Amino acid sequence: MQTPAGAQNTGDDIVAKVGNRSITVKEFTDGYEFGPAFVKRKENSKSVYLKYLINEELLSIEGEQRKLDTMQAFRDAYKDIYNDILTESLFDKVIRPRVAVPDDAIERAVAAQNVEITLKWIFCRTDSQLFSAVELLKEGKQFDTVFDGMLDSGDFADDRKLTLTKFSLLKKNPALAEVIDTLRAGMITRPVQGKDGWYILRIEEIAQSGLVTQSEYLEARQTAKNYLIKSSYDAYADKYVDSLMKTENPSIDGDLFRIARAYVGKYELKENIFDEWELGRSAEKAADKLKSSGRDPKDQPLVTLRTNKLFLSDFISWYSSRDPYLKFRDKDKQLFSRDVETNIWRMVRDNMLVSEAISMGLQNDPEVKAAAAVWKNKILYAIVRDELLNSVQVMSKGESPVLQTSKRTAGLSVEASSALIKKIGQLKNKYKVTVNTDVLSKVQVTEEENAHAIDIFYAKRGGIFPRAPFPSIDQIWGSWE
């Protein structure tokens, strides 16, 4: 069906059909905007992007016909993305309607962008240092005298002085910004606790910037509004997750935790540190304790909730799919253990959110189904692609197809390129491909035929699984022909 002359496309308009599938304007633009830059540097950028998108659809259809979605590799890659889509829909339905930012809060945030403050602080690593600093100030000692006395060897005074806008401080530390908001230049704050110790701050200077233009005001207002909406959203989301936690009242089994910690340690720590901390020995003792009481570790829950149980195998699966994105501190055993525990709680949170989304029936939501279908097709493409490339030995086996898609940017060998050309040619003879050039010509994109376009790698913030906001074409097409 042709779009009427002069009419604008809608997101549901069809750019192309590949076999029994349709590529919509929304699918095209989402992937194009967040996709690789090599396409945007070429002549007829939109047509080039569509060509490669069609190639991927053909390979994906081949995977679907061969029922590759029954493979474990597919199920593992698809499960995490599908669950993330489910929980994203959950937050949209439950949290987003509650978010509202009053105009007066926006105006205060706009004003904060025009107020510059200079702060100087006494830093106390321990409670005893804090007590000493407070007592000295109570005795009438000058702030600068206490400040100098609290500098450790190697510390510089300028490292404990900072100039920024009130709005920047609000974003960095909302609690501190609230304290500062009530003070004048020269005044000292009460002790403020941070992640690494205690802070006593003095306002050195407050400077008000001049009037701004209308365009600067509008930009500042939008910046403030975006920040406040996100802050409100995050606050509601935290409360929502906390309420689920309280309802389920989860607890971690200490013996299973030691086994889980050793598993993570084997991958995250150097061998000498793993041995020095005796993580393996601790895990063995925990396993022996369980076995001596007639309990097999693999059958015992790592986490027990009111309505569910999560096992060591659940955590290993959760950890393995996210391993490239997780960080564990390796300088201190206590901090490493805390990071392992934090990630177990993250797994619990993720599981609860997915269960809640399913209980609300969001797996039947049309938007969830549509988003999941696009990602399903992308993963099927990646599996078929990997089969082809493995057949000419250009990549390692056994790696997640989703990770391989994001990591592969190197050029293809002649053999690999030939294999792709041959397979795509066969599939074009098998499945009909039609392009709606009228719709394609009206598709609006932000950048095309720009020789200086650069790659920007996007990651969706929040959610339960790190991924690109939208699936796009593979980087390998950049060196295919």
How is the secondary structure organized here?
Blueprint: E1 14-18, E2 21-24, H1 25-33, H2 45-65, H3 72-94, H4 103-112, E3 115-124, H5 127-138, H6 143-149, E4 161-165, H7 166-172, H8 174-180, E5 192-193, E6 198-208, H9 214-248, E7 251-252, H10 254-268, H11 271-276, H12 279-292, E8 301-304, E9 309-311, H13 312-322, H14 333-359, H15 366-391, H16 401-407, H17 414-430, E10 433-435, H18 437-442
Antiparallel strand pairs: 1-2, 1-10, 3-4, 3-6, 5-6, 7-8, 8-9
Helix pairs in contact: 2-15, 2-17, 3-14, 3-15, 4-9, 7-8, 10-12, 10-13, 15-16
Overview of the structural elements:
This protein folds into 3 domains: 14-63 and 83-95 and 367-479, no CATH class; 115-208, Chitinase A, domain 3 (Roll); 251-362, no CATH class. The chain has helices at 25-33, 45-65, 72-94, 103-112, 127-138, 143-149, 166-172, 174-180, 214-248, 254-268, 271-276, 279-292, 312-322, 333-359, 366-391, 401-407, 414-430, 437-442, and strands spanning 14-18, 21-24, 115-124, 161-165, 192-193, 198-208, 251-252, 301-304, 309-311, 433-435. It starts with 13 loop residues before the first strand and ends in a 39-residue tail after the last helix. Helix 2 packs across helix 17 (414-430), helix 3 packs across helix 14 (333-359) and helix 4 (103-112) crosses helix 9 (214-248). The longest helix is centred in the middle third of the chain and has 35 residues, at 214-248. With 481 residues, it is of the alpha+beta class. Mean pLDDT is 89; it is low at 1-6 and 394-410. A 4-stranded antiparallel beta sheet has the order 4-3-6-5. A 3-stranded antiparallel beta sheet has the order 2-1-10. The chain has a 3-stranded antiparallel beta sheet with strand order 7-8-9. The protein is built from 18 helices and 10 strands.
